[in-house]
Amino acid sequence: MRGPVAPRDPEKKRQFYFLMKDKNVFAFPTPDGKGITPIYLDGGRLIEASKFVGNLSDENLIDMLKTAQGFKKLVHSIGVIVDGCDKDTECKFVFQFYGKNDLLGGGTLLEMPVACNGAEHLLDLSSIDLTDEDKEVGQCRFEYGANDFTANVTVKLYLNDGFDAPVQEEDAPVDLESAEFAAHVRDSVLQVGNSYRFNKAVEKARRGEDTTIAFIGGSITQGAGAVPINTECYAYKTYEAFKKLIGMDENIHYVKAGVGGTPSELGMLRYDRDVRRDGEVEPDVVIVEFAVNDEGDETKGVCFESLVRKIWNGKSQPAVIILFSVFANDYNLEDRLSPVGKAYDLPMVSLKACVTDQFYKTKETGRLITKAQYFYDVFHPTNTGHSVMAMCLEQVMKDMLDNKSEEDTDFDKVVSPIGTDFETVVLFDKKDKPVEALIDEGDFDSTDTELQAVEMNMDIKGTKQFPNNWRFDAKKHCSFSKPFTMEVEAKRLVIINKDSGSPLEGVADVYVDGEYVRSINPLDNGWVHCNPLIILNDTECKKRRVEVKMAKGSEEKSFTILGFGIVR
Fold first, then answer.
1. 426-567 belongs to which CATH class?
2. pLDDT score at 478
3. What is this structure's pTM?
4. Distance, CA of 230 to CA of 233 (rounded, Å)
5. pLDDT digits (tens, 9 = 90+) for 83-97
6. What Rg do the C-alpha atoms of the chain give, in angstroms?
7. Distances (CA, A) of 528 to 14, 450, 451, 467, 560
8. Contact 193, 288 (CB under 8 A)
9. Do domains 16-159 and 426-567 have the same CATH topology?
10. Class of the CATH-defined domain 16-159
């Protein structure tokens, strides 16, 4: 290999901070057989990553990161290092600004080839002209020629002259086996609770009978941040720990049912389909994880308690463990949801209690793991973070084995701390109709195939959510004319719509019994995902008429009804 005849003098290194540092990434397969790793930076994620990875604290610089123009004023260039398993492999680094009017298609898109050999490549922003349509930094991504690619990536933000970057510290290795860390893991157990059902499940497993441990939650349960997502996620690691703990293997079965960006309001609708597989699976232990997703729960906890009771009252009488994960900004809804665990005497585990306080210590005063080591991004754990979560769940399982309850909790005697209005909710869609209803599809006579897809169980490829839907396709009908109607006996109703970032999606108006209830804008959340919304919450079960039609101004745009939740 020959070098250049007359190499240029090196440019003066600018001040920088890390946006990502040795982040382990895995290529998610695309339909064309290639691979992609998206890193989302919108919605405050760029700022939080700059804080906990790059040690950024200057509020003036933080404010500049909120807009595309501010970012351009602050950042001169982006340094990218990809250290892959094959030094001859090349990938594409894409840096995308989101648009003001067209979120995914309106912003500036920058691309750069990067050799996966550990060398740094610079994307110079100084000559790039942004447009008035550029709103904010949206995402960066790595695109590969294969879908099984893994690598460690580092991204640096080099600052323009006149701006000072914070000092970049080296993190000490994390020792998860230390006695000091074990003490933090023990602190994660908020409550051992009644262990009767858990020990009953263990006895069943040790008799050699088929026993299932299941997980339902949001993107963390889905495995976000884990690389690879199927074997490094906390759910799988907990499953492995459970098998080892009770000394059994092949008769222990695993169900993972996490859906990113969705609250227990959707979880209570998905449980029978995604965990119980419509009766094919009856779990023995169920871990429920919605502590960082339930800000979107309209009922502020009623749906969570309803889900817990729905699981508890299942045919197999499963044990229920409540898991409280945490975001990088220390946020979760533990205070709102823990009264459910206390009232029903359920085991509860808190990652906030385990790691958050020590984040703010120094190495000398007791910090054992940094935020950059625990968090993959502002919301999701790294492989190490997922390991910590599994260790905490294993700890509460050990505690339950050591503290056997003689009898079960009588849920009928418990005074509900929040509410149980949706405990008996059932999912209703184009395929599954557990209750009688009269449907007139109207112009909602198409089926949407561009859906949120998630990795279930041990799968690497995503399973499309709510494929049996009703869609008004503006391409087919040109303009809206006939609404979707449903007549059904109910006292409570939830509609599930598909959110999107496409400007081709429009607003729909919902009416119940002739009365306007709400307008649903699929662009409010800005990405393709499942969004449950309550359209009726009454105490009387009687015949209802639901009508969904495109709102004024959206007659030439599309809308998807994914399904309904019905309480009778």
1. mainly beta
2. 86
3. 0.84
4. 6
5. 876 667 899 999 999
6. 25
7. 38, 8, 7, 13, 11
8. no
9. yes
10. mainly beta
